[in-house]
Design goal:
The chain is an alpha+beta fold. The protein has one domain (about 1-129): Trna Endonuclease, Chain: A, domain 1 (3-Layer(aba) Sandwich). It contains 4 helices and 8 strands, in the order αββββαββββαα. The strands form 2 sheets. The chain has a 5-stranded mixed sheet, with helices on both faces. A 3-stranded antiparallel sheet has the order 4-8-7. The mean pLDDT is about 90.
C-alpha cells in the first residue's frame, strides 16, 4: 500500500504542475492496475501529452513489455506524445520518450544515468505547447 500511495501522491504532484501551467488534465482511475491507458493526460492549446508515471528510487525504471507496447499503441491511436515520467527524490521529474527505453528480455528499461543524461525536464514539455 505504501508504494501505491507514493505513486498516487507523485501523480497528483505532476497533475498539479500541469494544471498550474494551464493544462487541462485527467488522471486515469485505477492506473497501474493492468490499465490500457497512461496515468495522466494533459491537454493545452489543442495538443495533448500522456504520461506513465514512476516514482522509484532505483538505479533504473523498467516497464513490462506488454505495458510499453500498449503505451506505444496509445500514442499511435491518439497522436499524443506519450512518455515515461520518472520522479527522482531531490531531482524532480524527468521525461523519457518511449523510443528511448531499451528493450530487454522481460521489459523496457532506462537507467538513472541515461535519464539524467537526456535531462528532459518539465520545462521542455511545457515548451512544446
Amino acid at each position: 500500500m505504501k508504494r501505491y500511495s507514493k505513486g498516487a501522491r507523485s501523480e497528483r504532484e505532476l497533475l498539479g504542475i500541469l494544471e498550474s501551467n494551464n493544462f487541462s488534465v485527467i488522471r486515469a482511475a485505477g492506473s497501474g492496475v493492468s490499465s490500457t491507458s497512461p496515468d495522466i493526460v494533459g491537454i493545452r492549446n489543442g495538443k495533448g501529452v500522456a504520461f506513465e508515471c514512476k516514482a522509484w528510487e532505483k538505479s533504473n525504471v523498467s516497464i513490462e513489455i506488454e505495458k510499453l507496447e500498449m503505451l506505444k499503441k496509445w500514442q499511435e491511436n491518439t497522436g499524443m506524445e506519450t512518455m515515461i515520467a520518472w520522479r527522482m527524490n531531490g531531482k524532480g521529474w524527468f521525461f523519457i520518450k518511449l523510443e528511448e527505453m531499451k528493450k530487454t528480455k522481460r521489459s523496457y528499461t532506462i537507467t538513472k544515468n541515461n535519464a539524467l543524461a537526456i535531462s528532459r525536464k518539465i520545462e521542455a514539455i511545457i515548451g512544446i505547447f
